[in-house]
Amino acid sequence: MQVLGVVAVILAVYCAHAKIYFREEFLDGDEWRNAEKDKGLQTSQDARFYATSARFEPFSNEDKPLVIQFTVKHEQKIDCGGGYVKVFPSDLEQTEMHGDSSYYIMFGPDICGYSTKKVHVIFNYKGKNHLIKKEIKCKDDELTHMYTLILNPDQTYEKIKDPEAKKPEDWDDRAKVDDAEDAKPEEWDKPENVPDPDAKKPEDWDVDMDGEWEPAMIPNQDYKGEWKPKQIDNPDYKGAWVHPEIDNPEYSADSNIYKFDKISVLGLDLWQVKSGTIFDNFLITDDVKEAEDITNETWGATKEPERKMKQEQDDLKRKEEEEKTKEQETEGDEEDAEDEEDEDLDEEEDTKDEMEEALSEMDEEEAKLKDEL
What we know:
Layout: E1 2-8, E2 13-14, E3 19-24, E4 41-42, E5 48-59, E6 66-74, E7 80-82, E8 85-89, E9 105-112, E10 116-125, E11 128-131, E12 136-137, E13 144-151, E14 159-161, E15 176-178, E16 193-195, H1 207-210, E17 217-219, E18 231-233, E19 245-247, E20 263-272, E21 277-285, H2 288-297, H3 299-372
Parallel strand pairs: 1-5
Antiparallel strand pairs: 2-3, 3-21, 4-21, 5-20, 6-13, 6-21, 7-9, 8-9, 8-20, 9-10, 10-11, 10-12, 14-19, 15-18, 16-17
């Protein structure tokens, strides 16, 4: 397992209405990364597990919101790898953290191939991990994206369908019905195919050898298909039957289902096939407005310049590739021209050799005639 580092960072900011329990932007040159580069925590080796964590003062989110946010940039054109964080209780042994370590919350993007591009939101409740039912898609581009999870201290009431309820037998949920007064026209039934009137029996047709001649069949222009009565509004239509719901007998209200005691560690525990992902702007707070302000100050201030710079880089790269392709085509044309010139020279040499050979033969013939005379 590749361990990026274990560092204890406590950054608590107290104010009248908010408390920041943890914040890390990698601006101070601490153990997380090199201050000279100042661009976040980056994975550096392909096909590796990564594990790192930071501890802060334990707290509970009872009766207050819990906001977890951070930025992720897949600079490497990611094909398969996680980009999520985990929030752990205070009893986590950071040096022994692994994939099976019990956590409170898992949140963030996960990408693998074309099928998996989603944001994980998993909560631990009574020792079991529960993934939310709604699937949230994530981006797989090379830009920085901010991920924010807000957990509010409210509850929802669960209902289930009444297992005893059944749709009444006389319930008519057909919006349209056949018109009983509509009748099929007498001239409706026509064959789908008819003999080709222009077909002629070949002159060499032999009944004994070829059998009885029959003209080819062609589509019948008068064919109307299967007749169906026209549809009218159903006078007995009652609408779609809705399965009634009852209180779930197995549901037990838990006013503390959202609450996590002794929140104390934020960690990365993930696998990446291709490294290069950059994590930054980690924040855990209980104030939604404060988190929004920090988002605007950090990612909000850099996203458009980054997008513009990325576009310029892509344009430059595309231009260089076009010029390279053009150069290769030019070189190819020059090579073809040289090959053609060489072929012409070879043909000239061959012609010259043939002429010299012919002249030599003529000289020999002339000498032979002189000898005979």
